[in-house]
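Proteins fold reproducibly. Look at a sample protein:
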Amino acid sequence: MLRLSTLALTVSIALCHPVLAQQAPPPTPSQTNIPHNAPLNPALPTVFIVGDSTARNSADLGWGDHFAQFFDTSRINVANRAIAGRSARSYIDEGHWATALAEMKSGDYLLLQMGHNDGGDLGGAKPRGDLKGTGDETQDVAQTTGPYAGRVETIHTFGWYLRKMIDDAKAKGVHPILLTPTIRNIWTAPDSSPCGAATQSVCPAGAHIEHDMGYNDWIRQVAAQEQIPVLELGATEANRLEALGPDKTAPLFPIDHTHTSPEGANLVAETVAAVIRSSNDSLSSYLKPLSRNSSNSGAQSSKTQ
C-alpha cells in the first residue's frame, strides 16, 4: 500500500497537477435556525441526503431543506442529514455517518454529495481534507484537535471515504446515488480570463460558469466501481445558471461563491429533482408529477425532515 510520507510531497503533487490545486474551502457560515430532524414514518421508505452546507445551512440556505416539495411525501420520507462544513472524511470521523446509517433501513435511498470541503487541511485547526483521488493511498497525520486529537490519524482518499459510505449503505439494503457537487459562482470569459467577481472585469457575452471544481471525475469513477448511479447535478445546474447569466446569478450567491440564498437553494433542489426524474432511477417514481408550467425538466441523466 502506497503511503505519502510527507505533507511536502502532497503539496508538490498538487502544484504539478492543476486539477488537484483546488481553492481552499470557504468558511462555514454561522449556523442558526437549523431545523430539528422530524420523526420519520417507519412504514415508508426514506430518501436520505448526506452532504455539506450546500445541502443544509442556516435559515433554509441549503437545497436539502427545499427538497421535499418535489416528492409525494405520503409515499416517501425526505430526511436531510447534511451538515455544514463537513467533508466525506469529517462526516465519518465525527460520527455523523454512523448516526445517519443507524436510521436507514432496507428499501431506503441515499443521495450522497461531497467535495466542497474535501480540499481542506489534513491536520491543524480544522482537519477535514482527504487525499486526492480514488485509490488506496494513505497518509498518517498527527492531530491536535477533533476526534483524533492527541493521536495519529490514517487519512484515506476522497474515493475511499465515498466507498465506505456506499458499502455501508448497500449492506443495509439501501440504494445509494452519487451527485456531482453544486456549482460555485465563478465565471470565465471566452478567452479563459476570470470575470464577474468584485475585483474582476464585467463578464462579456459568452462567459461560462465553472462546471467542475476538480471532483467530478473521481465521483464518476467511484460510481463505476460501485455500480451505482451518478447524477450530473453540477452540469445541469451550470447550464441553468449560464442561461440566467452572471448578473442574474449573482443574487443567488449573496454570501460567497459557494453558498446560496434561499432562492438559490430552491433552484438547486429543483435541479436535483430534475436529474432524478431524467435518470429513470426507481427514486423518480416518488416524485410528484410535473405541473404544466414547471421548469423541473431538461436535466442531464413541504419541509424536509
User: Anything to note?
Assistant: The chain has one domain: 36-286. The chain is about 25% helix and 10% strand.
